[in-house]
Every structure is written in C-alpha cells, then in structure tokens.
Amino acid sequence: MQPHLSVLYQEIIHALQPRPAGRYVDGTLGAGGHARGILEACAPDGRLLGLDVDPQALALARETLAPYGERAQLVQASYETFAVQLSALGWDAVDGVILDLGASSMQFDRPERGFSFLQDGPLDMRFGPSAPHNAAELVNEWDERELADLIFRYGEERDSRRIARAIVKARPLHTTRELAAVIEAAAPRRGAHIHPATRTFQALRIAVNEELAAVANTLPQAVAALRPGGRLAVISFHSLEDRIVKDFFREQARDLVNPPYEQFYAVERPAIIKEITRKPLTASEEEIKDNPRARSAKLRVAEKL
C-alpha cells in the first residue's frame, strides 16, 4: 500500500493561515495529514474538530494526531452534520474549514473497500457503514434506464447506455473486476485515454455516498460558521464537485439586488464572502510526480466578509 499523501498540503496551510487560539474544522479528516499541519501552525492553543465517516481513516487519524491531545477533537460523522458537531462542542464560530472531497488514496488502496477496478474486491464503495446502499445493490437491482442515467449524470460517460445494457445482461455481478471486465467489453479503451471503467466507478461511488448532495448541503453551513476573516478551502477532484463549489462561491461573493429593475433598488443582501482564488489552484508538477492522484485536484478558497 502506498503511503498516504495529503494533496495540496502547503497550499492548504497557506490558504487557511492558522494562528494561535484559532478554531478549525477538517470535515474530511482522512489519515490526518492536513489536520496535523493546521494543528502545528496554530500552536500552542489552537484547536481542531476533525470529522470522517470512515472508521478506518479515523483510527489512523487518532494515531497521527495523538500528540496534540485535547486540541484535536475527532468525531466519526459526515461533514454534512457540520453545524450539529459545532454545537455539540459549544463552538459558535470557527476561523477556518477544509473539505477534501471524494475518496481518499487509503480507500482506493484497500481492495476490500471496492473503490478500485484495478484490484479485485467486493462491490462496496461506501465511505462509512452508515451509507444506505452499497455499489452491488445499485449494479444488480437498478433497472437499465436508471443505471444509464446514473452513469451519464455522475460519470459524464457518453457510452452510459451501452454500459448499462451490458451490466444488466451480465448480472449478477459481485466483484470490482467482474464489473470492470463487463465495462471494458462494452466500451473498449480508445487510444491511451483513461481506463473505460473509470467514469462508471466514479458514478457509482458518488451515488452510493450521495456525495454531491452532501457538498451542496455543507457549503452553506461552513460559510455560516466562519468568523469574519475566516476561510473555507475546498479541494475537488472532478468537474461535478468543482462546479458546485465554484457556483456557490460566485453566488455568495456578489451583492444580491431586487430584480428586475436592479438599478432602482438597494442591495437586498451584500456579498457574504470574497473569492481568494478566482481560478482554482492545482498541484505542481513535482507533487504530481510524487502523488499522481493529485493531478486532478482543484483548490478553491473563500474568505468570510
């Protein structure tokens, strides 16, 4: 298994600008790499709340962050419960929030988690045990049209109907390699592009974990919890996530006036944030060389006004 590398680590620390006595939230704790950097930077008395639905990731993070004692409060929970978790700690506001979206390298590297088509494992793909469905249920129980729509919407796969038809014909499917073989036969690789199963596996993972809805529900909570001057940093790995973040930041960063005669009305709601990154930050060539999964990472940062 490859060692876990926190994507855009230096960029995150620079973006959040952690300081002593500050309060921070890592909504996607993983192994605790970003959290450790934040706790180092906000020493000696800054505090961090770390959330993750994955009990395996949380166990690793507890080891990583053990030296920081009670400065690190770790909870097995979805970042979608952001406001609830802050209330439980008695935190009325925070100075910084990070969301590192999607599956982690640890999850991809464990065949038994079912995220990777390169290794054989069960069709699971759940981030945590609380997910209502696993990938096997979607693959084996959804009808052909539902599967095709899912693969097209969440995977942006142009061969979605052909793939869905092949999946239904080959059912039941139980393992990642069985599913990948069906997809490869239905939609062979074209040249040196990405593996033909990539987009379908992405679509299934997003659907299993309801990822896009979770992001859309969490962003307003994060902005509402920030103090003036506090920052929200979001790393996304595919266009659907990034579009949600970009559109939300743009909407929150502009004054809302009363339509349709905007020039005659006062501002109804002033801008709530300012965008620190009008264009997303991406990984350097050196980081991509050390960690190929960083190549698709995009970081957007906003500051509360």
Can you tell me about this structure?
With 305 residues, this protein is α/β, with parallel strands linked by helices. Helix 1 (9-16) crosses helix 2 (33-41) and helix 11 packs parallel to helix 12. It is built from 13 helices and 9 strands. The termini are far apart. It has helices at residues 9-16, 33-41, 55-65, 82-89, 105-108, 135-141, 144-155, 160-170, 176-186, 198-209, 211-225, 239-252, 285-290, and strands spanning 23-26, 47-52, 72-76, 94-100, 226-236, 256-257, 267-269, 273-275, 298-304. The protein has 2 domains: 9-106 and 211-304, Rossmann fold (3-Layer(aba) Sandwich), CATH 3.40.50; 132-209, DNA polymerase, domain 1, CATH 1.10.150.170. Strand 1, helix 2 (33-41) and strand 2 (47-52) form a beta-alpha-beta unit. The protein is globular and about 60 Å long. The strands form 2 sheets. The chain has a 7-stranded mixed β-sheet with strand order 3-2-1-4-5-9-8, with helices on both faces. A two-stranded antiparallel ribbon has the order 6-7.
Topology of helices and strands:
Layout: H1 9-16, E1 23-26, H2 33-41, E2 47-52, H3 55-65, E3 72-76, H4 82-89, E4 94-100, H5 105-108, H6 135-141, H7 144-155, H8 160-170, H9 176-186, H10 198-209, H11 211-225, E5 226-236, H12 239-252, E6 256-257, E7 267-269, E8 273-275, H13 285-290, E9 298-304
Parallel strand pairs: 1-2, 1-4, 2-3, 4-5
Antiparallel strand pairs: 5-9, 6-7, 8-9
Helix pairs in contact: 1-2, 7-8, 7-10, 8-9, 11-12
